[in-house]
Design a protein that fits this description.
By secondary structure, the chain is of the alpha+beta class. Helices cover 27% and strands 31% of the residues. The chain is built from six helices and twelve strands. The strands form four sheets. It has a six-stranded mixed sheet with strand order 3-6-7-8-9-10. Strands 1-2 form a two-stranded antiparallel ribbon. Strands 4-5 form a two-stranded antiparallel sheet. Strand 1 and strand 2 form a beta hairpin.
Length: 198
């Protein structure tokens, strides 16, 4: 397969089918997202970025109810269901944290399953997280989107909570959390920024 040399030289030049993506080694899959079949290189975050995402996932995991069945995961492909072109081009993103309805083991996670997604903003991901993904996740019908902003010292500065307006398929900012995140959807959770910063 010639994917690796082409991707390594010019990641913007490569288009993938879902079948081709499924055949890539994990070492390459973890480095990319795909939108309309076009490869997008993912920029690795700082250790603080990863720590905040992991700690937030752990707190959400601890808060989730036993019923209905939900799961919490980090950095996993979430396949778009509405954004599929006629030629079969596929799209997915890797939110930093995803809360989703329980699905059959081994199944691909789709936006139909996602209840809440989180992106922790890195210096290189500001536009993507606050503009591109804001529109994409809303179009896909994900009910809640949290954007975690870090300050210059990489501590949690604020968390924006967006909720989907189902009629327009656009997110509405419902809260800008300061010092503590208080959620009521997809389940109640209260998480202080100090718990995320470690």
């Amino acid at each position: 397969m010639t994917v690796l040399p082409v991707w390594a030289d010019d990641p913007g030049a490569l288009e993938l089918t879902e079948a081709e993506y499924d055949q890539l080694p994990d070492s390459i899959r973890k480095l990319i997202e795909v939108i309309d079949g076009n490869v997008i290189r993912c920029q690795s975050g700082t250790p603080e970025h990863s720590d905040v995402a992991r700690r937030l996932a752990n707190k959400l995991e601890a808060a989730k109810p036993a019923d209905p069945c939900t799961r919490v995961t980090t950095d996993v492909d979430v396949y778009f269901t509405r954004r599929r072109r006629g030629d079969g081009a596929f799209s997915f993103r890797k939110p930093d944290v995803t809360v989703y309805r329980c699905i059959e083991r081994g199944s691909k996670l789709t936006t139909n399953d996602a209840l809440l997604v989180v992106e922790v903003v890195s210096p290189g991901s500001v536009y993507s997280d606050t503009v591109d993904k804001l529109a994409e996740y809303a179009y896909e019908g994900i009910p809640v989107y949290l954007i975690v902003h870090l300050d210059a010292n990489l501590y949690v500065k604020m968390v924006q909570e967006f909720r989907l307006d189902w009629a327009s398929r656009v997110y509405k900012l419902v809260d800008t959390h300061q010092d503590v995140i208080v959620l009521d959807s997809p389940f109640p959770a209260t998480i202080s920024f100090g718990e995320l910063d470690g």
